[in-house]
Design a protein that fits this description.
Blueprint: E1 4-9, E2 12-17, H1 28-43, E3 49-54, E4 58-60, H2 65-74, H3 79-96, E5 101-105, E6 108-110, H4 112-119, E7 122-126, E8 130-132, H5 146-154, H6 156-165, E9 169-170, H7 171-177, E10 182-184, H8 189-201, H9 205-218, H10 223-237, H11 241-251
Parallel strand pairs: 2-3, 3-5, 4-6, 5-7, 6-8, 7-10
Antiparallel strand pairs: 1-2, 8-9
The protein binds ligand T3D.
Length: 261
């Protein structure tokens, strides 16, 4: 891996976007490496939570525009193909991953970088970080799930203004709007957000996966369909050994030990 750092610690897979000189913007190699890392997260049973952050002063500045221009010189670059090969697989893998993804936005998150943060399950941000719907400034439209998640997070009117005006939103304002879960002091971000990832990695993994599946569907299901889904997910949750452990530990007044089974 040359463009990301991939580490496993306390059952958490930590993915650090690592192209700090270009604010961790996505070239094709970084996209492929993130996709491969997410495949590892899906297939390795010892990994029970994922943590995503950026190296240096930025989280991610979206598409590497220098690479985009360079590739356009040698061929007629179809941006739809780029979205389908680079960004959509990342968002699909993250949302279908049966494990929680914690995001630590350590600096500016622009374009597809912002969309990435919105698609995570629990997103923390440093006080000095910011969010920018950079797309319209260069004549593009939001991608990487941005037009799906942002209106659902902040509401239609605010999403519309943010996507069209492309104004930079500081972390505190992003929190007030509902874009993210928590803001942390810059020097506390990694400690607090990684602690959350570790907590999630020690929780009943299957129940968290079912919660994720329910949230994915709650975006589009009607009430009847969602009630049916809750019934089915509760049926599955009730068959896990972690459920038995949780109830037994409660009755025995001890701390539960969940195995993710
Ligand atoms: O093409 C497709 O495949 C379609 C898919 C598109 C998905 C997208 O994400 S489109 C949106 C692409 N991203 C942007 O338009 C954001 C561009 N960057 C910025 O607007 C600003 O850099 C920031 C607001 C993010 C940060 O501003 P600032 O002032 O803190 O930093 P800076 O000075 O602009 O950038 C620092 C360096 O990073 C600079 O290089 P230098 O001068 O030190 O050599 C700059 O060129 C480089 N950089 C920043 N963003 C990108 C980038 N290089 C390549 N691509 C970038 N996206």
């Amino acid at each position: 891996m040359e463009t990301i750092i991939f580490e496993i610690q306390d059952s958490v897979a930590k993915i650090t976007l690592n192209r700090p000189d270009v604010l961790n913007s996505f070239n094709r190699q970084m996209a492929k490496e993130v996709q491969a890392a997410l495949d590892t997260c899906a297939n390795d049973a010892t990994i029970r939570a994922v943590y995503l952050t950026g190296a240096g002063r930025a989280f991610c500045a979206g598409q590497d525009l220098a690479e985009a221009i360079e590739m356009g010189k040698t061929s007629d670059r179809n941006l739809g193909d780029s979205v389908e090969e680079v960004y959509n697989p990342i968002i699909r893998k993250m949302r279908s991953l049966q494990k929680p993804v914690v995001c630590a936005v350590n600096g500016v998150a622009a374009g597809a970088g912002a969309s990435l943060a919105f698609a995570c399950d629990v997103t923390y941000a440093a006080t000095s970080s910011s969010f920018l719907q950079a797309f319209s400034k260069i004549g593009l439209v939001p991608d990487s799930g941005g037009s799906f998640f942002l209106p659902r997070l902040v509401g239609f009117q605010k999403a519309s203004a943010l996507m069209m005006l492309a104004e930079k939103v500081p972390a505190e304002q992003a929190l007030q709007m509902g874009m993210i879960y928590k803001v942390c002091a810059d020097d506390k971000l990694s400690e607090e957000s990684f602690a959350a990832a570790k907590t999630l990695a020690a929780m009943p993994t299957k129940a968290l996966a079912y919660i994720k599946q329910m949230l994915n569907k709650s975006m589009s299901n009607d009430l009847d369909a969602q009630l049916d889904l809750e019934r089915d997910m509760q049926t599955s949750a009730g068959k896990t050994s972690d459920y038995k452990e949780g109830v037994n530990a409660f009755l025995e007044k001890r701390k539960p030990v969940f195995k993710g089974e």
